[in-house]
Design goal:
The complex is a heterodimer of chains A (299) and B (1125). With 299 residues, chain A is an alpha/beta fold. Helices cover 34% and strands 18% of the residues of chain A. Chain A has an 8-stranded mixed sheet, sandwiched between helices. The model of chain A is unreliable at 1-7 and 213-236 (pLDDT under 50). Chain B has a domain at 50-296: YVTN repeat-like/Quinoprotein amine dehydrogenase (Methylamine Dehydrogenase, Chain H, 7 Propeller), CATH 2.130.10. Chain B has 5 helices and 89 strands. In chain B, the strands form 22 sheets. In chain B, strands 10-11-12-13-17 form a 5-stranded mixed sheet, with no helix packed on it. A 5-stranded mixed sheet of chain B has the order 41-42-43-44-48, with no helix packed on it. In chain B, strands 70, 71, 72, 73 and 74 form a 5-stranded antiparallel sheet that branches. Mean pLDDT of chain B is 79; it is low at 354-377, 467-472, 497-506, 818-830 and 850-856. The chains are: A alpha/beta (299), B mainly beta (1125). At the A-B interface, helix 5, strand 8 and helix 10 of A face strand 86 of B. Chain A: Belongs to the class I-like SAM-binding methyltransferase superfamily. RNA methyltransferase RlmE family. TRM7 subfamily. Chain A: It holds the Pfam family FtsJ.
């Protein structure tokens, strides 16, 4: 956004490969954790839309550092995830009841402390639609989170900030005492993504968690005021969403290109390009690509 | 507020065979197809919401009347189209649904009293509204909620009129498609307005197969088939298997696209068209599962929508709308016809024995010898050069020193050919090296400096009598010794310029100018007289010797200006030379009177396209339009340039088509041969030649062409007919950036708005927006960058553009009076154009930039993030330096947190030689600088060391301010010291990055700094200029901040201010206009901000605001013009 455009390969992309993370997004969670100390009291963590699993990698590493022996981490996604140490992987749709029941079975010792959701649709380029689908994803993740979270639990979700962001914000505010928008420095400034960090879950009295998605998680509360309507209409926004930029100033700038030498010289294995830590297991479009490739070979 | 959006076309729909409507942002545009004119443009959804779909339905009792349904987000607009002759939209209802609408449908009641509008929504719901035909009142009827639990991405409704059933297809995020079939009677109004449907009341079916979100579902008009596409990038066609109920089975899966597909449409004769993300429309034959046709007429990425129409003559029209804000209309028959007229054939070259000596025996490709391997006494000949004489005959010479004439023609369905050996030499000295035509013959230059001339008359006869197989060719051969200085490296003739009518009328004697290039930097100009009646060469006379300034220079291209007898030559190092034969000099040796470094590599072709404009193409892949001033000084100026081929390519040949005035360009990249249409600015065809040798030639006539290329021992001929692939109609805008625009500059100029836009598609476009007609047309595409263009800055004379890969280019303004291409579009006869002067890379050296595409470097290339043209009259006392004359001074900020001062120098002795000279570079911040602005201090505050202030912001919310005074260009380090000494850094202005910055001087000499940040805030700060400060330290004192407590709901990415109003805009698509007000209480004047207007824009990814008088332009994915005053 603004005057920045995307460079496909930045410093975090390279660092993730060096340090064995499956995606550069790992640094976003690390920086969010740095700011909010998400895993201080956490033992049970659920990572929704987890593929390829970089966030679960971070969670597992952080909980080990904090010496949580009995920690349970569950990663859920529609797509396959390669096994991660200390993480239970469930393949399933988060909007379906059996998946949620399987998740709940994993936690014998009660409820979940932190629910993470880094899911995003493939962006189409028309941001209106992207933002809408993304807010749908957040709301269904919230739906699952209301099942799982303990009182006072934390929910972190990726959001594409746009016209209707404050609609999502006010819905989240119904369920959480403290909702903050955060942008880690490892998230590019050219991207419209940010993260809702919602702390202090308290289930409102009227709310009975259900998996019937169409019974909108907060529709009873906000229907009268129709918050998302107000936000996109001509009047200026009156709610100011708290915003935090996280990651300290010593970290790398995602919008900058760094010389390879500077970072690699201290590393003995100076290689020109590292292979990906975890190649996509089963991308939706892999058949299309494979067919194209074989067609090229035969002609 | 008047707004006009030029950007992605998101929906398109035919109203009749004469009218088309398409949606561009929030505007619904009515286009008259036959006149190519926009007849109406209006907003139909409230608050400027983007339109996602348009459909029209015929009203049963009145075939002239149409109902047009337009939807976007949660809104549906219902309009009548009154007449098909003079269509006008008359809105009768505006519906707000409770969820996002994915499809709408229209059902008429039996008694014609009212009709129903069905809106398929996310969450597998369908809302029904009834509209009374007479009172035009719209009423909510019912909401049908189907049981399913998945996020919806797409939906489509089909109404079966005979069985009175409705089928709703819902595409899910996971790739499932759910079908619900229900009775029409369910749509009757009930007491309970919400109707939860169970599995009993509706029949449902789950279609499994896709993976990833289902982007689009389309019903065939009969309802028997359903086409779907998803993230797995295939199209699945589902066929109804029973007449009753809802049973669909997968019929076929169509593969081809590796990019996502946004829209589908069934076409007649079992075909389907898909609009794809990669900018290509593909048409499949469903029966044989093959993608037969690709339509590639759009710039950049993303074709969003497609629509079709079958007229009363049963011809099918197709329309597509794309992200480059253009729509194209095709006739399906035309596209298909092109498909049938395509032919490709491979001829084996005659095999020759290597050991043969003097005999002229050869085998006319005896197939039994085709398999002879290497090492035997036979070896395959390979073609060194090919020239077409006409569609049916070509000349080739091979590496075995043979010159053949080949006749190729089509007899019935079969292709036939004859081969004739014209000439064969054993001696390598006599080997052919170059070839050209004159009107009556072929000239062949040999290794020893001899030129052979073959008469064309026999070839002409041969072509006429080709059916007689026993016809024997006898070529009359003439020769003359053209040079004794070695081989004839190149040979040109003045005839080549208009070579299309090769074998035409007779004349008695022909005079030709021929030019022979020798390896020692000379070109011999011969005058040749041909006796036509006897078909012999009458006279050859040396006129002049044109000398290259370097001894080892080699001319590789030339064109002859017949009016002035000027010769324009290009050499192997990309230089252009102009020679003029002077009357008063006795010596035949001519030296160039003008030279210009135009290209960076060998110039391959030069060609006149107008009296004073010629084109040049080079191995570096660039095509230049050059202006030749032919009156006094015979100078050449590069007007504009274009990278026609997507990859790095060689521009090889120009083709002129005299019948429909087309002009084409042939180029190579790796093994592909591409033909590019210069006038239409698009690719005509790209052919995979396999492992090619450099021996292609193309022959072209109005609607067909033959391509010839070779592999070892083979000659491949390809015949294509391409006339019909042009779309029959285009939108008047003629295309825009197909990708995001990173920066724009808008200036008012004689009643039109001149717009310079820098796109992520590596182009800078110079275009004009007419404030009367509200149409935009493109003047010029500046295409020299190798990555997305980030920013531009302009002053009276110069345009600077900077891009990723640390590239900085300067362009000079030129006023061209007669523009050959676009003058009909613009009311004014003169317009400003820009032509490239110099290019500068910050971190790439010259060798890297030449093959940038392949090179892996360990040094990071930075982006140029912003540019400021500095007022050089204030900062520099003396323009003339020992190294040149300083023309312009630019301040460059880059993504590694450094800034640089660059100057444009003109070399003192050699005029027209320009260099971008880096004065100095300085690292100020460890974070990327994203934006900058400058401010000239009021005169009362200016001192020698303090003339202007420069402001810049970075990604961690810091504002950096420097003051800059007079510079001593011979000692730039002193300036660096001053720069670093005299800076102010204000931290924590914003949380996160500051995206844009604008500075303005208020009336009381206070400075207003407006910043827009990632933290959703637009902040403005007031600074006071401290006049008492006499020391060399900054003079800014912060007064106070104006931080509004309301505003945007997403990051603010563009701001602008003039000291009275502030515009701010960002990712929430809102443009807020703030007024700066002063109030005085207690004798103290207070300044505060007041939001005065909010406009929702259709530009996403907003990057920049530019203002010119009453007009404001917002750039991002598209441009929106607003009349804000």
């Amino acid at each position: 956004m603004g005057r920045t455009s995307k460079d496909k390969r930045d410093i975090y992309y390279r660092k993730a490969k060096e340090e064995g993370y499956r995606a550069r997004s790992a640094y976003k969670l690390l920086q969010l954790d740095q700011e909010f100390n998400l895993f201080k009291d956490a033992e049970n963590v659920v990572d929704l839309c987890a593929a390829p699993g970089s966030w679960s990698q971070v969670v597992s590493k952080r909980l080990r550092e904090l010496r949580k022996g009995q920690a349970t981490i569950v990663a859920v996604d529609l797509q396959e995830i390669a096994p991660i140490e200390g993480v239970t992987v469930i393949q399933g749709d988060i909007t379906s009841r059996p998946t949620v029941e399987t998740i709940l079975k994993e936690f014998e010792n009660g409820m979940v402390d932190v629910v993470l959701s880094d899911g995003a649709p493939d962006v189409t380029g028309l941001h209106d639609l992207d933002e809408y689908i993304q807010s749908e994803l957040i709301l269904s993740a919230l739906n699952v989170a209301t099942f799982l979270l303990r009182q006072g639990g934390t929910f972190v979700a990726k959001v594409f900030r746009g016209k209707d962001t404050c609609g999502v914000f006010s819905r989240l505010s119904v369920f959480f005492e403290n909702v903050t928008l955060a942008k880690p420095r490892s998230s590019r400034n050219s991207s419209i993504e940010a993260f809702f960090v919602c702390r202090g879950y308290s289930r409102p009295s009227f709310w009975q968690p259900t998996l019937f998605l169409h019974k909108d998680a907060s529709i009873e509360v906000v229907q009268g005021s129709e918050i998302e309507q107000e936000c996109s209409s001509q009047e200026t926004m009156t709610v100011v969403m708290p915003f935090v930029s996280c990651g300290d100033l010593s970290c790398y700038d995602a919008d900058m290109a760094y010389d390879i030498d500077k970072n690699y010289l201290e590393n003995s294995r100076v290689t020109r390009s590292l292979s990906p830590v975890q190649a996509p297991i089963h991308a939706a479009y892999e058949t299309a690509l494979a067919r194209k490739r074989s067609a090229k070979q035969t002609t | 507020m008047e707004t006009y959006f030029h950007g992605p076309i998101t929906a398109i729909c035919f109203l009749s065979d004469k009218f088309l409507c398409y949606a561009q942002g929030s505007h619904l545009v009515l286009l008259n197809i036959s006149h190519q004119r926009i007849i109406d443009r209006r907003q139909v959804l409230p608050d400027g919401r983007r339109i996602f779909g348009v459909s029209n339905f015929v009203v049963r009792h009145n075939s002239e009347r149409r109902v047009v349904l337009v939807f976007g987000e949660r809104w549906v607009s219902v309009s009548y189209l009154t007449s098909l002759m003079l269509p006008e939209l008359q809105q009768i209802a505006l519906i707000r649904c409770s969820d996002w609408v994915f499809d709408v449908c229209f059902i008429e009641n039996d008694d014609n009293s009212c009709f129903l509008v069905l809106c398929a929504q996310s969450h597998h719901a369908c809302e029904v509204f009834s509209v009374n035909c007479t009172t035009q009142a719209c009423q909510f009827t019912t909401r049908l909620q189907f049981p399913f639990e998945e996020i919806t991405w797409s939906a489509s409704i089909y109404v079966d009129k005979t069985t009175e059933t409705i089928t709703l297809a819902s595409g899910c995020y996971s790739g499932n498609i759910k079908l619900f079939l229900f009775e029409k009677s369910l749509l009757e109004p009930l007491n309970d307005s919400k109707l939860y449907l169970s599995e009993e009341t509706s029949k449902s079916l789950l279609l499994k197969g896709h993976r990833g979100p289902v982007f689009r579902i389309r019903w065939e008009s009969t309802g028997n088939r359903l086409a779907t596409t998803a993230d797995d990038r295939c199209i699945r066609i589902w066929k109804k298997s029973t007449m009753e109920g809802v049973y669909f089975q997968q019929q076929v899966v169509l593969w081809d696209s590796t990019s996502r597909i946004w829209d589908l449409e069934f076409l007649p004769d079992d075909r389907i068209i898909a609009a794809c993300e990669d900018g290509i429309c593909r048409i499949w034959n469903i029966s044989d599962e093959k993608c037969s046709i690709r339509l590639e007429d759009n710039y950049g990425m993303n074709v969003f929508c497609t629509s079709s129409w079958i007229d009363h003559r049963f011809s099918c029209f197709i329309a597509t709308g794309a992200a480059d804000s253009s729509c194209q209309i095709y006739r399906l028959e035309d596209i298909l016809r092109r498909q049938t007229d395509r032919y490709s054939t491979v001829f084996e070259l005659p095999c020759v024995e290597v050991t043969t000596n003097t005999s002229l025996k050869y085998n006319l490709w005896n197939k039994s010898q085709a398999g002879i391997k290497k090492g035997s006494s036979y070896s395959k000949e390979s073609v060194k050069s090919i020239r077409w004489l006409s569609r049916e005959s070509l000349m080739i010479y091979t590496d075995h020193n043979r010159i053949y004439h080949v006749g190729v023609w089509k007899q019935g369905q079969a292709w036939k050919q004859t081969w004739t050996l014209l000439h064969h030499v054993e001696d390598k000295i006599l080997a052919p090296i170059s070839m050209t035509f004159i009107k009556h013959g072929i000239l062949i230059g040999t290794n020893c400096g001899q030129v052979l001339i073959f008469s064309l008359l026999d070839i002409k006869r041969h072509v006429e009598h080709r059916s007689k197989v026993d016809f024997v060719l006898r070529f009359k051969r003439n020769s003359f010794q053209a040079t004794r200085k070695g081989a004839v490296m190149n040979i040109f003739s003045s005839f080549e310029e208009n070579s299309n009518e090769l074998l035409s009328q007779q004349e008695f004697s022909m005079r030709e100018q021929i030019f022979i290039v020798t390896p020692d930097g000379c070109m011999f100009w011969y005058h040749l007289v041909w006796n036509v009646e006897e078909d012999v060469l009458e006279k050859v006379q040396l006129q002049y010797i044109l000398k290259h300034p370097c001894k080892d220079g080699l001319f590789t291209a030339m064109c002859f200006h017949s009016k002035t007898s000027a010769v324009v030559c290009g050499d192997k190092k990309g230089k252009i030379f102009v020679f003029i034969p002077l009357q008063d000099i006795d010596s035949p040796v001519l030296m160039p009177i003008h030279s210009l470094q135009l290209h960076s590599d060998r110039i391959h072709c030069l060609s006149w396209i107008a009296d004073n404009i010629f084109l040049s193409g080079s191995v570096d892949g660039m095509l230049f339009w050059n202006l030749f001033t032919n009156r006094e000084d015979y100078q050449v100026q590069a007007l504009c340039q274009r990278k026609c081929f997507y990859k790095v390519a060689t521009v090889d040949k120009f083709l002129k088509d005299s019948t429909n005035r087309g002009l084409f360009l042939v180029g190579f990249h790796s093994k592909y041969l591409t033909i590019w249409d210069i006038i239409q600015e698009k690719e005509v065809i790209s052919i995979d030649c396999g492992g090619w040798r450099r021996a292609h030639d193309v022959w072209l006539c109005s609607n067909e062409f033959m391509i010839c290329f070779t592999r070892r021992g083979q000659l491949v001929l390809r015949y294509e007919c391409f006339e019909d692939i042009h779309s029959i109609v285009k939108t008047p805008s003629n295309g825009f950036h197909g990708m995001r625009i990173n920066h724009i500059l808008m200036r008012e100029w004689n009643g039109v708005l001149n717009l310079l836009s820098c796109g992520e598609d590596t182009m800078v476009r110079n275009s004009v927006f007419c404030t009367q007609t509200h149409e935009m047309c493109s003047l010029q595409i500046l295409d020299c960058h190798i990555s997305g263009v980030q920013c531009c800055a302009v002053d009276e004379e110069w345009l600077w553009t900077g891009s990723g890969k640390d590239q900085l280019i300067v362009w000079k303004k030129a006023t061209v009076n007669s523009d050959i291409r676009y003058s009909q579009h613009i009311a004014q006869s003169t317009c400003h154009y820009y032509h490239k002067k110099d290019m500068y890379f910050g971190t790439l050296d010259k060798s890297q930039r030449m093959r940038f595409v392949n090179k892996v470097t360990s040094i990071a290339t930075q982006r140029v993030t912003s540019l400021l043209v500095l007022p050089k009259h204030l900062l520099i006392r003396r323009n003339t330096l020992p190294c040149g004359i300083l023309h312009s001074l630019i301040f460059v900020t880059r993504s590694d947190g450094s800034f640089a001062l660059n100057s444009l120098l003109e070399e003192p002795k050699e005029s027209n030689k320009w260099t971008i000279h880096s004065l100095y570079r300085f690292n100020v911040s460890q974070f990327s600088i994203l934006c900058s602005d400058s401010l000239i201090l009021p005169e009362c505050l200016q001192t020698d060391w303090r003339k202007i202030l420069i402001f810049a912001c970075n990604t961690v919310g810091q504002l950096l301010i420097w003051q800059l005074g007079e510079m001593d260009l011979e000692n730039p380090f002193q300036v660096v010291n001053e720069f670093s000494k005299n800076s102010i850094v204000i931290s924590d202005l914003h949380q996160g990055a500051i995206h844009d910055l604008h500075v303005s001087l208020l009336e009381n000499n206070d400075v207003l700094v407006v910043t827009g940040g990632e933290d959703q805030r637009m902040n403005s700060h007031l600074f006071h200029l401290d006049a008492t400060s006499i020391e060399e330290r900054p003079i800014l004192v912060k007064l106070h901040s104006l931080v509004p407590n309301c505003g945007h709901s997403a990051s603010v990415t563009a701001v602008w201010t003039d000291g009275k109003v502030i515009f701010s805009s960002g990712a929430d698509h809102k443009l807020i206009i703030w007024e700066i007000k002063t109030s005085s209480d207690n004798g103290q004047s207070n300044i505060f901000l007041q939001p005065c207007k909010t406009v929702v824009s259709n530009v996403s990814d907003i990057s920049c605001i530019s203002v010119a008088n009453d007009w404001l332009a917002l750039a991002g994915s598209g441009v929106e013009f607003m009349k804000w005053k």
